[in-house]
Specification:
With 75 residues, the protein is an all-alpha fold. It is built from four helices and no strands.
Length: 75
Amino acid sequence: MTPTELAEALSNRAYAFATKRETGRAIADYDRAIALDPANAVAFNNRGLAHALRGETEEALHDYAEAIRLRPSYA
């Protein structure tokens, strides 16, 4: 598995955790996915959502801004 493929798998698992409100586990997987693929705008956006669910507004805004910087059309 390539680093990009592993990042995608981690991001998918993180999304599943987030939908179950297991935000800590989701953020940990998004952190790993982003470390493997720092240009992954979707992972930044979704990690922002997980932070927002936890009430971590500043972290969420930072991730949303990075997602927009990476892919302006994604918003």
